[in-house]
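Example record used in the benchmark description.
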Amino acid sequence: MPDDAGFSPFLPSQPSSESAPSPAVMAQTYAGYGWPVFPLHIPIFTPEGVRCSCDELPGACSIGTHPRTLHGHLDATTDPDKIRAWWQESPDANPGIATGARSGLVVIDVDPRHGGNYSLEALEAQYGPLPDTMRVRSGGDDRGWHLYFRHPGRSVPSGTDVLGPGLDVRGDGGFIVAPPSLHESGRRYEIADEFAGYPDETPLADLPAAVLALMCKKKPTTPKRETSIQEVSEYWSRRLLTSVEPDDLSRLFADPEVARACLSVLGFPTDLPFGAATLCPLHTERRPSCAVMPPGESGCEFHVADFHAREGQATYSLTAWFYRLVTGTLMPRAAPTYLTWGVRLLVEAGVLRRPAIEAPLLPGDAPSAARRVFQGFIELLGVRRLVGDREPPPFTWKFAARWCGITKDAAGAGITWLLGKRLLVICGRFKTQLKKQMYLFRLGDARQRKQGRRTPTPKSFTAAKDAQLQAEEAQAQQLAQWQAHKAAARAEREASRPPAPGLEAELARLAEKDAAHDCADWTVGRVCEWCRVLYAAAVKNLRRKYEALAPPAPP
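Model output (structure tokens):
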């Protein structure tokens, strides 16, 4: 089993603790250089795959490269005591370094996955070779580079593809993952051997003037126009040609326009600035205690930060916050649940279009619980169609209660009423891993049955429809036979039970037991008051039991 350090027997290429300094030691070393540091999460390797130590659902975070602290790189410090406390709490946390003027660092991130090596060659061909400076080999499969330069003393903004495709800049307002951090590939970030003397023996190089000018060059901007929800919906509808996948969900919730559209559904004001503290919609309070935070430099999604963690955890993804708002409980760790509720949030926010579902009309006398359950089931079918699943879904009382925002009893009453009216139909069943039987549901047609009799089939119905109705009738007969078998078995068990000894015999046995009772409060031949109360209650319960078993008196 992997430990918290992320060591995995499935990745033999990982460096051992003897070949690489510990993250805690390197964090203190960086702080000694005057570089503010803070802890990052680490990847955890299991036989099922790689997950992040933050325990977020797959696809909900950038594994091993996002901050452990609440405010991210803003919490970075050079205070040895604070750094020691962080790494005592998480000894194997990956170290992160805040870049910019506060650390005196500007880092060029060469990402070969997006053509960074070719962009670097083109940059050096045009402006001359970059000076020798500290170089760090990243831990990814592409084995990119981080080039450390001295900060010029003027503002150098962070950004992606600043110097060309795959040439990112980490300057003011950014951070970098530092050696010996562990990557999700199983490799560690490490300083190249030929640059091992930096910055102890050789100072970092200055950025060439031409490259610095490119970094600080302001891009032409156009006046920003408010984007409507319809435009956001059309844009993502063009990008999602087939169905919504977990990776698509991560990209959607990293889009500021999508996050803005979701604010009202999540209980926040629509004009709330990202990162600004506001009142929590989950409980009544007088002071702001939460905020909708933008993605960090690691590229994760928008998320909700609960500063007081009164609801059980400090940070929520937008999907988990929506689940908490609707159901009142924390979201279970199940990828299908995360995908289903995330797509529902996007549908209610108007980002994704709700598919049209053909459904029978509810009668005018339908109870309110049945109406809510029926509408919730139609919404569930639409969400499942968006994720590419057209199979009949399970619809238990517990799930229906959470999905529809009602009590479990109300959900059960609504499902029972809809089944009786043939508006919902049981079309299959399966057993879960815990051997629990689950029924599959689909929409029915109230005209198919009337007072227990099948109505004549219209001519427009196809042979497939007739075969489907016959299969449903066969399933209904099997269910009735199973219920009759259970009732017969129950009656057989009742008949095989020995007859009750009778009221007088049980009272006599109770009196003998009371007479032989040795009470600790026995005084002057009398039993204590408490035992007397228990004896009277036992007699009363026996009389009630036999009164209930007695046959009713003739009129």
